[in-house]
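Why predict the complex rather than its parts? Because the way molecules touch one another can change local conformation, and only a joint prediction can capture that. The input here totals 809 residues.
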Amino acid sequence: MKIFRWSFVIPTAAVFALACVFFVFYLDSYLTKAFISGGEMIFGAKVEVESLKTQFKSLSVNIRGIKIGDKDNEFKNLADIDNVNFGVRFIALLSKKLIIDDMTVEGIKWGTSRKDSCKLPPKKRKKSEPNEESFMAKAMEELKTKAVQEYDDFPSVKKLGEIQSQIKSFSPQSIVDMAGIRSVKTVQDSYVDLMGKYDFYNKTVNEFDIKTQIDKITALTDAVLKTNIKTASDIKILKDNLEKLNEEKKNLEKTYKDMKAVKDGLLKDAKERKNAFKDITALINQDVDNIASKLSVPSLDFKNITRILFGGIWAQRAEKVLYYMNIVRKYLPAKKTENANNTKSEENPSENKDKPQPIERSKGSDMQYKIKNKLPALFIANIKFSGTSGGEGKEGAPLSFIGTAKNISSDQKLIGQITSFEVKADDTAQFIAVTGSFDRISDIAQDIISFTIEGMPAQRLGIPESDYTPSFKNATSKISAEFILTDGDFITKAGISIDKMFYDASTKNFEGVNADLIKYVNMIWQGINSMTAQAQLSISKENGQKAGFTSDIDKQLGQRFNNILNAAVGDVKVKIKKEVEQYVDSQKLVLQAEADKYVKRIQAELDPQLKEAQKKIDEIKKLVSDKENEIKKSALSTIFQLKI
Amino acid sequence: MFFTLIRDILKVLQSDISPKQIAFGAVLGVFFGLVPGLLMKCLIFALIMILRVNIGSAFVSSAVFALIGLCTDPIADKIGYFILNKDSLISFWTYLYNMPLAAFTKFNNTIVMGNMALSFIFFIPVYFLSTIILTYYRTHLRDRVAKWRIIKLLTASSLSYKILK
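Output of the joint prediction:
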């Protein structure tokens, strides 16, 4: 008896054979299409493949000429790969699992130019935007806008020009007029005080009635002179007149004293006035300082220079890294804690875990057993890759690099290894090392990418150049940076050092710019040929976005700028002093002239009176003395005559 | 469809096909009717088609046992649970569970496993019962039934019979 129904087996085998033939001839083109559409979905730009060949025998795939467009630059390729080779495990493939033990990727290039645009039609492109509305995407958008506003226009450097024009157009006269300076006021106050005193002296002098006194004295003197002692009664009359004359003399002496006091006061005030003018010089200096302090000297935060030079670049780089980290997150998502616990329990079964766990279904229950060596849906154990930094449309000597990527998996917990990669490039001039890890084993997903670059031409950094900043054409740079994305918080740190930068004003376009400004800019950068800068950027849901830049040149440039400003302000001070001194001197001259005139007038009135009073006093003294002697003689002769 | 099925049954009964072929067809039909799951059904279907068993009897049997299966599912669930949780078998099931393709058969489902067990239980009774019935029919009833006009009408076209044979 025949066991098999050949009438069924043969046609079925024929159909199966036809299906195999179909796959052999058409599978490659279908896979190519799937590869391209998948790539376009991930990168948001055109993906091209030169050829894709599969080999059933060894279950290997060979892809040649992969070009992935840059969504931000339609005529550039994000990546350009010559050759990709890998083999898949057959048994795992039957379980819809793509397991690749070894993969080689050769001829990796990036940023190469392309002849046609890599833009996708709008609908396709929209699909490709990862987390368009996410917090991180919004934060990065804000950061980019801020960078454009803050760093692109060099406002702080241009401010130098504003400062200079402000100093040049500065008018000390206008400041003197406005300020109401103390020195001039003091001169004026002094003048008012002095004139008040002079008025008092004048009034006092006018109150002296010296003529009446002298007339009285003259009358008494005449009476005394006319009196001849003949009798005893004459003596009495003379004595009385002499007493009156002495009385008047005392009055005149008092008046004389008062007049003398006025004169002494005048002399004393003149002396004090000179001393007051000595103080004026100190006051003028104080006034100049006060006026200079009122001068609105602009301050220039030289932290801005670091931001200007590196802010934009840093924001762009951070944005790009974050974009790719988000792509990694999208296609290498973190497992939820519940799943993690389940998986853990699968991996580390306790005593009861050998027992199957029922999951109730509509029809019966599915028993689950311990999974041994369960594989994830995608697992690439090891990738070796190589490439070059050169390529079509790129300048400079290309740098070759090699690297490895390990444990690319759709479920790291199943394989117990985190995804990591390492790239190294080294030639005599440059050294580049990039490492990365994408941890989905821990409860909180963490992605870290760090790189070190030494000896790279600084020009490649794309540092913006202006007429006010040095040239980086021959400069070399050393960069070390770390990008960390922990859960939803993004932190980056970078240290940048640049050597051989040079500022040469002759190579800059300073047409129509003030010569002083050119001089000052030159002075600021003179001798600064190297610099280091540190950049920090963090974006978190709790604290928002924070960016910080520090540099060793900040302080240096700030100091130099302040020195220039101080020198400029010093010039202005000299102008102010000259102006104030001129004004004060003119005020002093007016005051002195007025005061001298007043003093002269008072003295002209006072001196003759003093002389006359002195003369009269002397005369009275002599007369009184003579007459008293005469009285004494008369009295003696009368006594002798009585004795005789 | 139903009419065609009846016609095929009658043709099988009236034909000279070996009772063993028909009995084996019926046995495989038991599996086909009772065991749920697409992959399992595909495998059993392939067996029915590849092996020289009677297809008609297989489909008749599967239709009958599909109806029986609706009633036996609660029992199958308990039997399946018992088998799948049997300590001595757990290591075997675990091994099977870790095999790449085995999981697609849904063998770890209590209904599938229970119905599979029931199918094995029904294997011998169905085989012998169908052989006995067929032998009895052919000996005592076939000639009488062959004279019926309806039978003549139904068996007039022998094309399908030839294919199914």
